[in-house]
Specification:
The protein is of the alpha/beta class. It has helices spanning 10-19, 24-31, 35-50, 65-75, 136-142, 145-149, 165-168, 187-214, 230-245, and strands spanning 54-55, 61-62, 78-88, 110-117, 123-131, 155-157, 173-174, 222-223.
């Protein structure tokens, strides 16, 4: 339904806000509207979808890390933690902090978001957006996750990049085992160490699958618009993905 004075119907505004990963000028040409109309639609729709949070059982929604940790502690479930990077426009020349967005991993200008899934790989949180140069462990600490985990009963499965918060949270963050023998390790230890790491990876791979589903959205393949709006974009898409992950394929959708 088209609102008075608005040339974009609601469905078109959804498509403008999330589906197409192109600039506002291109969207305006596609939908035959003014660029300001596209900017207005994006500014209205993305924050609304972002504030919905991620869906869990009984249609409950989790909107921040505090609610996620409380949910995990009450259900005795564990989360799987990782970070994902999306390429972004490079800040203009001679701009202060221009190098902050250069990722140490990909050597490209990127924005990084934290992704948490439950034990079966369904997204329960996505956000805490930071520039690409920020380390994964720094992002987790600055988001307040380490403090929330202390005494909560929740557990988080993570890769080796998060080994620091393990001591800060009373072993609530579970990371791959350290290698005790650096030189000439016994054969039995090599086999034991490899088995432990493989078991850890088998569980943690579910968050990689969730990240792949997020990046199926063209808006997250490369961020072409303002970097300040990326947090709303990734949180909105994560909320829609969590809805999709809770649809029972055996029953007709209600």
């Amino acid at each position: 339904m088209r609102e008075p004075g608005y040339r974009l119907v609601f469905l078109d505004r959804l498509l403008v806000a999330l589906r197409h990963g192109v600039t506002h000028d291109v969207l305006a040409a596609w939908f035959e509207v003014d660029r300001s109309t596209v900017t207005r639609a994006i500014g209205e729709i993305r924050p609304i979808l972002a504030e919905r949070g991620c869906r869990i059982e009984n249609r409950t929604r989790l909107r921040d890390l505090g609610e996620v940790v409380e949910y995990l502690g009450s259900t005795e479930d564990y989360a799987i933690l990782d970070a994902t990077e999306v390429r972004a426009r490079r800040p203009a020349a001679h701009t202060a902090g221009r190098d902050r967005f250069i990722s140490g991993k990909s050597r490209q200008n990127a924005i990084k978001s934290m992704v948490n899934t439950d034990s079966v790989g369904r997204v329960v949180f996505c956000g805490a957006t930071v520039p690409g140069s920020v380390a994964d462990i720094t992002q987790a600490r600055d988001s307040g996750l380490a403090g929330l985990l202390v005494g909560s009963g929740a557990r988080v499965l993570a890769d080796a990049g998060y080994q620091g918060p393990n001591a800060d949270t009373g072993s609530a963050v579970i990371t791959p085992p350290h290698r005790k023998f650096r030189r000439n390790p016994p054969a039995w230890y090599e086999q034991h160490h490899r088995t432990q790491r493989q078991a850890h990876s088998r569980h943690r791979i579910r968050v990689e699958h969730a990240i792949a589903h997020l990046q199926n959205w063209r808006a997250l393949t490369r961020h072409l618009t303002r970097r300040t709006g990326f947090d709303h974009t990734v949180r909105a898409i994560a909320g829609l993905l969590s809805d999709h992950q809770h649809i029972d394929r055996a029953q007709p959708a209600r």
